[in-house]
Write a structure and sequence with these properties.
- This protein is an alpha/beta fold.
- It has 24 helices and 27 strands.
- The strands form seven sheets. Strands 1, 2, 3, 4, 5, 6 and 7 form a seven-stranded mixed β-sheet that branches. The protein has a six-stranded parallel β-sheet with strand order 10-9-17-18-8-19. The chain has a six-stranded parallel β-sheet with strand order 22-27-26-23-25-24.
- InterPro entries: DNA_helicase_UvrD/REP (IPR000212), P-loop_NTPase (IPR027417), UvrD-like_ATP-bd (IPR014016), UvrD-like_helicase_C (IPR027785).
């Protein structure tokens, strides 16, 4: 989260082309305003009749509304290209615009030509043949219809690469954070651009360290997928979904989507999507495994809970559920039959009958077909198709025959499928060693593990609830019985594209289900195995995800852009202790040294005065959006209240219902993950809070210490943690 809500520099650029670029900008703005005036003049939108005129006027109004926000910032860069001996300059912006009466057109950033602005390539082959050569890339800082700066990124006549790309990037990164997510369209780096534009139709896993821009890259990839140039892979925004780990991030992230032209995308959490699909929106979803990991000091119990949660999310559980349902439905079909007399026009009534053996054969075919809509709908459709075929029903009588079969068929489906609800069936399976054993996929030790309850000491809500680790199993039952995908009215269809943020926290089973719910190849996962705070749910490696998403490619962003050199080096030191991503390269952006505040362990007020002082120091350094990061939500609540005695008023964010609106906040690391702030203060940054001997605790410390863009403070009553001291 952060954004270039920039104080732009004053207009005093010394670039020799500044006057020319200023004049071109004015011409582009004037051309856009003329086009908007034309579209908004309803008298000019005349058709052959009144209805056609209204339609044309409405369409013109929509075009005007889409272009209007871009008048103040028509473009941000340009390309001078030579194609077939002819040179021309193309201007790159967030919204494509064609000036039908002049030279002031704009190419969209998400087009194939727009991609050339971000890459290091110096040549390309246009669609109409010939060979294209890049002569110059130029960044143009524009705001409020005014040109502020011209920066050449590459100039063939000046010797090639000018170093301007890094200069522009550093300028943007030095800007303060806001309460929104960073829009990186203007400063996409070549490796980010490659990941964003990886060939459509391929599942992509983007692995990137904290601050590498993977979340915003995923959003921009989604916007790129909606461009008509994607052809058969083009996605409809309203048919796409973004899954964020919690509602704080979902609300926060949704703010950028309208700016990218994909406002209708559904942004939700895995739990929100799952309960909505199950029709159980009021079901309370808990994560008792996380509660145990954060509060219980019994390592044996913690390890048991971890292993059981991992097994619940194992991809094999999909076939365990399928085998269980096959046995259940086959047993329910024994002794069943269907017999109904069907009236047909101009013919004698005919009897449609299916025996026990016929019904079993249909069920076998339905399981083999594995329909998206689920076995119940697939079974019904198979019986109806068989009836139409056997009775030789003409097209104009099909509806009548299906109405006559509806009641007896519904009754049969009720006897076979009705008692199989996702919640009860998932729990019935887990409570039956025989059912778990029937698939032959689980060892006896694993079956015994699933039968244990290491969470018995963790309280459960009084109302109907489900645990986050159980949800994928319930979704698997839903997928096979009632179907899975995007609800469009009463029908299910595959999502056009799905983006998963914090993808290291999604189980392989959930990946398999999302792959089933989405068009083949249309899933983008964004994650960092170093930040796996919920590793008990997530994959042990990306290979485990590739195993359930055929053809998935893992792309690594090797550079982090968020923090200063000092903060990046501290985070890398922590991450290196669990042997991953120690090679992450930061932007060479110097900043303030990491500030360390230490009080004696027996100080009267503990670390409270130090935290208050750290806040004042961060504010004195010019930072507004500041986070105080705690290990647990209960710590954040207490800290927010106690700090008032030290003239420090911080907004607590302790549940998913809270919203981040900027300013000074105090929040647990579980909710800070995915956010970034101008300054961050890690409270209780010591080995008593973050156990040095436990990898999970070091991961939490890494996440806490990697939230800051510019300024980081570490506070402890007693010695600081050895990794940050």
């Amino acid at each position: 989260m952060s954004a270039p809500a920039s104080p732009r520099p004053a207009v005093h650029d010394s670039h020799p082309d500044f006057p020319h670029e200023t004049a071109h900008l004015k011409g582009t703005v004037d051309a856009m305003l003329r086009q908007i005036d034309f579209w908004e003049d309803r008298d000019r939108q005349m058709g052959a009749d009144l209805e056609t005129s209204i339609i044309l006027a409405d369409e013109a109004g929509e075009h005007a509304a889409m272009l209007s926000p871009h008048v103040h910032h028509p473009y941000f860069g340009s390309l001078k290209v030579r194609v077939g001996g002819r040179e021309q300059t193309l201007y790159i912006g967030k919204h494509g615009f064609r000036d039908v009466k002049g030279p002031h057109s704009v190419v969209g950033w998400d087009s194939e030509v727009g991609s050339l602005f971000y890459s290091d390539a110096l040549g390309w082959t246009p669609r109409r043949g010939g060979q294209g050569v890049i002569k110059r890339r130029r960044q143009l800082d524009v705001a409020a219809k005014t040109l502020h700066r011209v920066t050449d990124l590459y100039d063939d006549e000046a010797g090639g690469d000018t170093g301007g790309r890094e200069e522009v990037l550093l300028r943007r990164l030095e800007e303060g954070s806001t309460a929104g997510m960073r829009d990186v369209v203007e400063t996409l780096q070549p490796e980010q651009n490659t990941a964003m534009r990886y060939p459509a139709g391929t599942p992509v896993i983007i692995q990137g360290a904290a601050g590498s821009g993977k979340t915003t890259i995923g959003f921009h990839r989604l916007a790129w997928m909606t461009n008509a140039e994607r052809g058969p892979h083009q996605a409809r925004a309203e048919a796409c979904m973004v899954l964020m780990p919690n509602r704080v991030l979902a609300t926060y992230a949704a703010r950028i989507l309208p700016e990218l032209g994909i406002g209708p995308v559904n942004v939700t959490t895995p739990e929100g999507w799952a309960t909505g699909l199950l029709g159980l929106e009021k079901l309370e979803v808990t994560d008792r495994t996380l509660t145990l990991l954060l509060t219980d000091h019994d390592n044996t119990r913690r390890a048991l809970a971890w292993r059981r949660a991992k097994l619940l999310g194992d991809a094999r559980m999909l076939d365990v559920v399928r085998t269980h349902l096959w046995n259940r439905f086959n047993a329910a079909l024994r002794g069943q039959s269907l017999r109904e007399e069907v009236a047909l026009n101009r013919r004698e009534a005919q009897v449609f009958a299916l025996s026990d053996a016929d019904l079993h054969a249909i069920l076998r075919d339905v399981f083999a077909a594995d329909p998206l809509s689920g076995y119940r709908a697939g079974f019904r459709r198979a019986v109806e198709d068989l009836a139409i075929s056997q009775l030789n029903v003409p097209d104009d009588e099909e509806a009548s025959v299906l109405r006559q079969l509806s009641a007896p068929l519904t009754a049969l489906l009720g006897r076979v499928f009705a008692s199989t609800t996702p919640v009860t069936e998932a729990r019935r399976l887990l409570g039956s060693p025989e059912a778990l054993r029937s698939s032959g996929l689980l060892t006896e030790r694993e079956i015994a593990l699933l039968g244990t309850d290491p969470l018995s000491g963790i309280p459960t809500p009084r109302r109907a609830h489900a645990d986050a680790t159980e949800l994928p199993l319930m979704l698997a039952v839903q997928a096979f019985t009632g179907g899975i995908g995007r609800l469009d009215g009463r029908t299910l269809e595959p999502f056009d594209h799905v983006v998963l943020d914090e993808a290291q926290d999604y189980s392989p089973l959930l990946y398999a289900l999302l792959g089933r719910a989405t068009r083949p190849g249309h899933l983008t996962a964004l994650g960092d195995l170093n930040q796996g705070m919920h590793g008990y749910k997530g994959p042990s490696s990306w290979e485990a995800v590739q195993a359930v998403l055929p053809g998935a490619e893992v792309l690594t962003l090797g550079r982090t852009y968020r923090s200063t050199r000092q903060i990046t080096e501290l985070g890398a030191r922590i991450a290196a202790t669990y042997n991953r991503a120690a090679q992450v390269q930061g932007v060479d952006r110097d900043g303030a040294e990491v500030q360390r505040y230490v009080a004696p362990a027996d100080a009267p007020h503990g670390e409270l005065p130090l935290i208050a002082q750290a806040v004042k120091d961060a504010q004195a350094a010019g930072h507004v959006n500041i986070a105080i990061v705690t290990r647990r939500a209960v710590d954040a609540d207490r800290l927010a209240e106690s700090l008032r005695d030290f003239d420090t008023d911080a907004q607590p964010i302790t549940t998913q219902e809270h919203r981040f609106r900027g300013g000074l906040v105090v929040l647990p690391v579980s909710l800070a993950k995915g956010l970034e702030f101008s300054a961050a203060i890690v409270s209780s940054a010591n080995a008593q809070t973050y156990d040095e001997s436990t990898e999970y605790e070091r991961r939490l410390l890494y996440v806490s210490a990697s939230r800051a863009l510019h300024w980081l403070g570490l506070v402890s009553a007693g010695d600081l943690h050895p990794l940050v001291a």
